[in-house]
Amino acid sequence: MSDLDKILELVNKNNGFITTKEVVKNNLNKMALKRLCDNNKLERISTGYYCLPNTFADDFYKVILKSKKAVYSHATALYLHNLSDRTPLHLDITVPRGYGGSLQNDKNVSLHYVNKNIIDLGVELVKSPFDMKIRCYNIERTICDIIKDKNNMDIEIYTKALKWYAEKKDKDLIKLMKYAKALNIENKVVEIMRMIL
User: Fold this and answer.
1) Could you give the CA distance from residue 3 to residue 12 in angstroms, rounded to a whole number?
2) CA–CA distance, 103 with 190 (Å, rounded to integer)
């Protein structure tokens, strides 16, 4: 079996996606990826990431691959954590200040910028609607983000999310306050938590 065939076999085992790193790890020639793209058997999503053409679009996965530091946040993170029943019209993504990558040109993405020292605060891997692992802020960081950016949030999404968070049995108020302090919104979060709990 040729490297091309082996790569396609790996792609099919991985829900239609593959990375250059996986190809190298399996001792396959990474130049075969270019040949597969030239022959329209693979599409390049971004540097080091490929998928089968016409793969059932997991936009959550494809878009986040465009930057290693990008994290789903705000209304998109609420949706991924089942704190919103509204499918996002655009994808909310947080990136470090100074980011200059291709996400800036994606009309389906709404970028939020934070200092580099807090970009990874509360990041976890969650499953996309198509079962791919993606970077997303955890529930407590997301609640802090929507409180901080309340004026830019859809009021219905904002209100429902806070209500659902208040009802969650496994909420972590200590973690919530730790994030609120790091984001300089401690007083605002305390005030809102007093109102909803």
Assistant:
1) 14
2) 34
182 with 131, same domain: the answer is: yes
Nearest to 173 by CA among 140, 141, 124: 140
Residue 99 and residue 170 share a domain: yes
The pTM assigned to this predicted structure is 0.82
Residues 81 and 172 in one domain: yes
State the pLDDT at residue 56: 60
- At 144-194, the pLDDT tens digits run 999 999 999 999 999 999 999 999 999 999 999 999 999 999 999 999 999
Cα-based torsion angle of the residue sequence 7, 57, 142, 152 in order, rounded to the nearest 10 degrees? 140
Q: pLDDT tens-digit profile of 31-83?
A: 999 999 999 999 888 778 888 887 666 789 889 988 889 999 999 999 999 99
Q: How far apart are CA 68 and CA 60, in angstroms?
A: 14
- The two three-digit tokens of residue 66, written as one number: 């465009």
**Count: domains in the chain:** 2
**47 and 134 belong to one structural domain:** no
Task: Give the residue with greater pLDDT, 142 vs 59.
Answer: 142
Return the CATH number at 25. Answer: 1.10.10.10
Q: Sheet containing 17-19: which strands, arranged edge to edge?
A: 17-19, 49-51, 43-46
- Phi and psi at residue 196, in whole multiples of 5°? -100, -20
Domain span including residue 150: 60-196
